[in-house]
Amino acid sequence: MLDHPTAESPPLTQGEIDRRVFELYDEYCHGGMDRRTFLQRAAAVTVGGLAMAQALMPRYAAAQTVSFTDPRIKARYVTYPSPGGTSGTMRGYLVQPAGAGPFPSVLVIHENRGLNPYIEDVARRAATEGFLALAPDGLFPVGGYPGNDDDGRTLQAGLDPGKLRTDMANSARFLKTHALSTGKLGATGFCWGGGTTNFLAATLGADLNAGVPFYGAAAETASVPSIKAPLLIQYAESDERINAMWPAFEAALKAGGKSYEMFIYPGTQHGFHNNSTPRYNEAQAKIAWDRTIAFFRKHLA
User: What is the DSSP string of 149-166?
Assistant: First the structure.
């Protein structure tokens, strides 16, 4: 069946997947087509295209790097008020390092499909590095991440964008003022979460102490003067839609005298940090993550 790739399909490497299939996958991930259409179009574009498309579907169980029972951390779900958001209440995955704290804090913002297992794993990774991490689930007001990315993407697309971003801003404020937090707050996010990291930098002003957006949409130029936090901006090499926003964003950052660093990672696709699909680039993802942790240690100490 076209819409049900088999679990037995052997994983392919990035180099074995046709660039045109990657482009279709990017369109599919951002809501430009449904899963069946993606698989059909991939099958038509090249010999072996269906297998390539199936290989790009996330394999979350295989991608876990830090167990939720890891003795270095303590993880739990928490709920908190979110005035002005989708429902007035939010839920997030809170992960603290072992020890009494307090700890510098990092908000980990999901992609355009809710709080999936990859993002929870990133929160656990941050906690093993000594940060109190909160990964909010923007889908909580509509039932939470539904267990698969297709339904998650549909649910998130149906939310009011302004209220969803308000939920993320309220999540940041909840984390910053948490009893286990030092009050130093960083934010990182991926794809939609990267764009939201840029948005939060402008919205929170001095309440955010560091931001690390991964391949996220640029902040609106008019909002850039409100940014106070230093930014570490991470881009994939092959990501035309997102990278096209950089020149105007950089010009605004320069004009405002903002503190920022930007890196483009060679040989990478949009989503290269996500280790659940072949878009993952292990070497470049490690460099990007090491830079992220070093940046947070520098600015959240």
Answer: HHHHHHHHHTS-HHHHHH
